[in-house]
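A note from the maintainers: we've had questions about how concatenated examples are separated. There is no special marker in the raw files; a new sequence line simply starts the next protein. For clarity in this README we add a label.
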Amino acid sequence: MASLSGCRYSLADHHALISNVAPAEPHAFDAVLKLMAGVDVDDLPFQMEEPEGHHH
């Protein structure tokens, strides 16, 4: 099964990627979503942050 930057494709859904390692607390991170269609590739950077007041 192919791997992509610490992720692997789901065996149940080839469109889904599963992280090989759970994120550290807090659940905030920067990432890049890669969209691929044939030879076309779009990299979409994004940032995930916990909602204000949400603490573990």
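[label: protein 2]
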Amino acid sequence: MQDIFTLSVPDMSCGHCRASIEGALQPLGAQPAFDMEARRVTVSGAISQAAAISALEDAGFDAAPVTQG
């Protein structure tokens, strides 16, 4: 099953951050799409939101779900 969700990553600010986040998520089967200005990552793939947040925290980034509304 493929999930799609958006995470706020307030400390993401540069290309190195982007590469670190890709490196944390892609091995878990996730495809990240970046909005660097808003500091958000939209994640798609066979990964849960909780697993993505955990992977980002392990990589040194705080992450939280973005609520729609």
